[in-house]
Write a structure and sequence with these properties.
Strand order of the largest sheet: 1-10-9-6-2-3-5
Pathway: Amino-sugar metabolism; N-acetylneuraminate degradation; D-fructose 6-phosphate from N-acetylneuraminate: step 5/5
Strand content: 15-25%
Radius of gyration: 16 Å
Helix content: 25-40%
Structural class: alpha/beta
Protein name: Glucosamine-6-phosphate deaminase
Organism: Weissella sagaensis
Keywords: Carbohydrate metabolism, Hydrolase
Function: Catalyzes the reversible isomerization-deamination of glucosamine 6-phosphate (GlcN6P) to form fructose 6-phosphate (Fru6P) and ammonium ion.
Bound molecules: 2-amino-2-deoxy-6-O-phosphono-alpha-D-glucopyranose
CATH class: Alpha Beta
Length: about 230
Amino acid sequence: MQIIEVKDEQAGGKVGFEIFKEALADNAQVFGLATGSTPITIYKELTASDLDFSDKISINLDEYQGLAGTHEQSYRHFMEEHLFNQKPFKESYVPDGLAEDSKAQTAHYDALIAEHPLDLQLLGLGQNGHIGFNEPGTPFDAQTRLVDLTPSTIAANARFFASEDEVPRKAFSMGIGSIMKSKKILLVAYGENKAQAVADMIEGPVTTDVPASVLQNHDDVIVIIDEKAASKI
Ligand code: GLP
């Protein structure tokens, strides 16, 4: 793992942007994208740039079950607002939160990833060490599936909803198995509330208790962290 410590999210956005730029120069075709507050500064840099993704493919990590893509808190909506509207891709995939047949939907998503192997996967980090919505205990070879969110994730994400009751209890998530197949992985984490997960991810044992620790087994991972997120390493 290559660890890059930055002063703050703005600086992290610039470093992350450079990694996207290098990937494009390296002929990357498929970009795995993430939601949450962490990637926002990278998306800001991307939208302000003249980089062209109009012949590239993006595949997002996850989506809440039960939310339409037009719902303000859906991850599809988030991506449109923060990136796709200003910087379109040829094709952009996000799981369909309203899919009635969840098995068919997860199989379809896995087929998509197999057809378009990921060149660069961007990841945030959950306070409990989750990546995507792969919560602690997820097997490292997991494929796309419908997952139950943990109480800590529901509480952490409640800030985006009117109340905790409105946070969906389940989500579709790309599996750790697919994430690990990406050629390159960029994980970004900011703030004190990520410090323990960052330390466990980098220095702890590789264990399903800390899903992000699996990244120690990948040979091309870049981690961008700010000083607060780095405070326990
Ligand atoms: C959610 C997302 C993750 C994200 C995490 C951290 O649970 N499913 O992909 O990494 O939140 O979010 P934030 O970046 O807002 O701290």
